[in-house]
Amino acid sequence: MVLQPTYPGTYVQETPSGAHPISGVTTAATAFVGxxxxxxxxxxVQCLNFGDFQRVFGGLDPNSVxxxxxxQFFLNGGTEAWVSRLQSPDGLIPTGFDVAGNPADRxxxxxxxxxxxxxxxxxxxxxxxxxxxxxxxATATLNYAIQRKAFxxxxxxxxxxxxxxxxxxxxxxxxxxxxxxxxxATYFPQVQVxxxxxxxxxxxxxxxxxxxxxxxxDRNVGVWKAPAxxxxxxxxxxxxxxxxxxxKNGQIDSLGINALRTFPIYDNVSWGxxxxxxxxxxxxxxxxxxxxxxxxYIEQSLIQGLQxxxxxxxxxxxxxxxxxxxxxxxxxxxxxxxxVGASPSQAYQCICDASTTTPQDVANGIVNxxxxxxxxxxxxxxxxxxxxxAGQSSNR
Length: 396
Prior knowledge:
Rossmann fold, 3-stranded antiparallel β-sheet
């Protein structure tokens, strides 16, 4: 609207900026696909606390690892769990689940299609499966994680109880899961938590506990912070099934298995931040959990935040607006320490111009955007060099 002044003085006219701000998506919406005694089948139900889980799925159940995992998730800082109940073949004993499911009827892992956004995926019953079923379930889960731009926390089989067994498993099994290993992590050893149904603790994989720590770390710092260290205590964990030391830790760490450790003063903590793809040279760029999860966060945020681009005129003006929006999203991440670089241009770049979108692309209605970013990586090794000075005489 053209301003038409009628008297001497100051006029204010508000005009739209043309900018399209991109908001970051949530980072810790956690899906549990597993056995529970009751509740809707193949239907993710949002639980914002353990009370919600109790009302829908019945609370803790000695036959349900999922129920204990969900409890640990909330105890360790999780705030948004989506629980999808798997059908047990015999209706009673939680074994033989079809995790792979069917996309046509949204069964198994595909039940999560009902969720608009999923960040973390857990399959608590996998450790009890036989080798063949475990491989099928893990592969299906990681393929789905890649498809949904999510991150999976997998528990190793229950019979992996020593570091030697963990090493053997790491050298033979994850490589068969496919490309999804860059979007997954696993932890050793298993955790032992209070069991109201027995005098003995309940032993299980640590995925639920770690998912809660991921959520708490995201909330306190950001998705770019490693969910590990003395600031990542394992709440509610009485003991670990195996005592780890530095030597054992070093043996499994290089293979992409994250250690759970017990330290004086700090008690039980997460002591690793590597993906399952860490041992694969080809996946070196996705060696660390925070780097991979940051990439997924950026991807999901840009996908949702750039929907306005569809059907806009594909020209220089649009490309400039896209660059403005993407840079406006990435710059706060740089200021918060998520990206590394002496200047913003070293930390991130958004390229969207004639070099990425050719006349043929324009004719086909395609806009190509290249986003480059340099993620921070965790400091895993603290090296302290001590040098003793030669004795010096002193004047008295």
